[in-house]
Amino acid sequence: MITVDTPASFEWNDTNSKWVKNYLMPKTTLILSLTNGMGLDLSNLTESKFTHFCELLEKTAEGRELRNKMFKAWRSKKSRDSDNGKKMYTFNLSIDAGIQLKKIAKQAPLNKTLETLIFAGKTQAKDPEKLQQQIKQLNAENQKLKQEIETLNNDQADSLISSDLQVTELAKLEKSQLIKQILILKRKLAI
After folding, report:
1. How many whole angstroms separate alpha carbon 75 and alpha carbon 41?
2. pTM of the full predicted structure?
3. What is the C-alpha R_g of the chain?
4. Any idea what DSSP says for residue 5?
5. Which residues, in sequence order, are CB contacts of 39 under 8 Å at separation 6+?
6. Quick one: DSSP state of residue 36?
7. How far apart are CA 175 and CA 183, in angstroms?
8. Using one digit for the tens of pLDDT, what is the confidence trace for 69-89?
9. Domain residue ranges in the chain
């Protein structure tokens, strides 16, 4: 006798039996051909009839394929059901964006990293006082850097300014890029 292994988390209950019936209903023609016309009464499907049906499916390659697809679909359904409050999204990213996302994520899962980035932007947009405070802080750091550059001898200052972006170009950068340039200048000044 052939024994049929079902997924470890598959239990025969009302919910799962309804799902099995709904999954098999559109495949009635295939089921009839695989069971040599015996058919399967989906309206009166019990656990023992289902087990017998799975045993019949094991006898042919098409049957095994149907059985494997059915349980793969069931596992996917269970996975989706367990993701409360989540939805699957599929989209394309450029290769460079994917590489940058992986660098940002480091050891964290990509989906968590994306959520963090999305909600970080949302939080900042909601708190204009915090943004004003950050702008004041950046302006203070900018003034401090200007003073440090002025104290350097002209040769060092000229080389720093010529090797980095011009001040007018810095003013055009977004906040994150500006912070990055400030940090680079700080490191160079520390040398």
Report:
1. 24
2. 0.44
3. 31
4. P
5. 31, 32
6. T
7. 12
8. 988 888 888 877 776 777 778
9. 14-82, 128-190
